[in-house]
Fold this sequence. Notes:
Helix 1 crosses helix 2. It is extended and about 140 Å long. The strands form four sheets. It has a three-stranded antiparallel sheet. Strands 1-2 form a two-stranded antiparallel sheet. It has 392 residues and is mainly alpha-helical. Helices cover 72% and strands 9% of the residues. Among the domains are: 92 residues; 36 residues; 142 residues, 3-Layer(aba) Sandwich (Rossmann fold).
Amino acid sequence: xxxxxxxxxxxxxxxxxxxxxxxxxxxxxxxxxxxxxxxxxxxxxxxxxxxxxxxxxxxxxxxxxxxxxxxxxxxxxxxxxxxxxxxxxxxxxxxxxxxxxxxxxxxxxxxxxxxxxxxxxxxxxxxxxxxxxxxxxxxxxxxxxxxxxxxxxxxxxxxxxxxxxxxxxxxxxxxxxxxxxxxxxxxxxxxxxxxxxxxxxxxxxxxxxxxxxxxxxxxxxxxxxxxxxxxxxxxxxxxxxxxxxxxxxxxxxxxxxxxxxxxxxxxxxxxxxxxxxxxxxxxxxxxxxxxxxxxxxxxxxxxxxxxxxxxxxxxxxxxxxxxxxxxxxxxxxxxxxxxxxxxxxxxxxxxxxxxxxxxxxxxxxxxxxxxxxxxxxxxxxxxxxxxxxxxx
Length: 392
């Protein structure tokens, strides 16, 4: 409410200012205040004043209602307090009467128990107390004797420990004196070293360093010369490294021969009745396609089909070397290609390819089911003991 009152006073002040200064120059900012602008400000101030007055009235009504409720609450609490005081007084009277009765009963019981206890003491407890007293006296005498003996032993032990402690203190003092002497010697040594360093520095400041500068200059020239050679070597090696990377000269060479390799491979696969196309890219990743089928990989083939692909690759690279160098290797060794990796059609196809090779071809096999007429010579080996020997 106080903030509303302050705002109303401020609005009235502003309203009065614009009522008195319409169509004139503002004394503060030196701008002309039009009558239309002044009237708008006055109207807005009147609206705001009415709004604040309504809010103030609403707040005053709410405060009045709250005050009435507080008075009613206070009267209610006063009535409740009066009732509670009367109830507490009645309860205190009843409690006092009850406590008095209980105390009287308790005193009667205590007196009766005391009479019974006195009779018990006279009949039983007194002889027991006399016996206990005699036992305690004897035990006390024994304890006093033991205590005296223990004190004597402690006195003796203290004397021995005191002598040992004195000897240790003397030894520690001697060790401390030795350490102090060593410390003094170290301080003297440090002082001597510091003095020597100062002498060396003073001497170095007065010496002629021309020869040293000359030697250092020559060393710098030598290092710079070596650095230039090293930088040139690094540059050349960087060029060589770039050329020898996978995407360097090697990539260019592979890119040149990949079409030829793929042609050789697929020619050999066609000879071996393979119904798919095998292509290697420049990184030797294979792509295998078949008519009416999706792409699939080398591992998805059977062992016989993989044998066909392996042999096609072998023969293709052999032909590539021959075409590149102009010479053919005169030796070809095939290990177990006819045993289980190739089926009957595959064996016939491989024999057809081998029949075109005029070089020395050796077929290693563990099976004796092959057509003997396919080979012009047979060499049989057998194992005897731990050695393999030719069988005649």
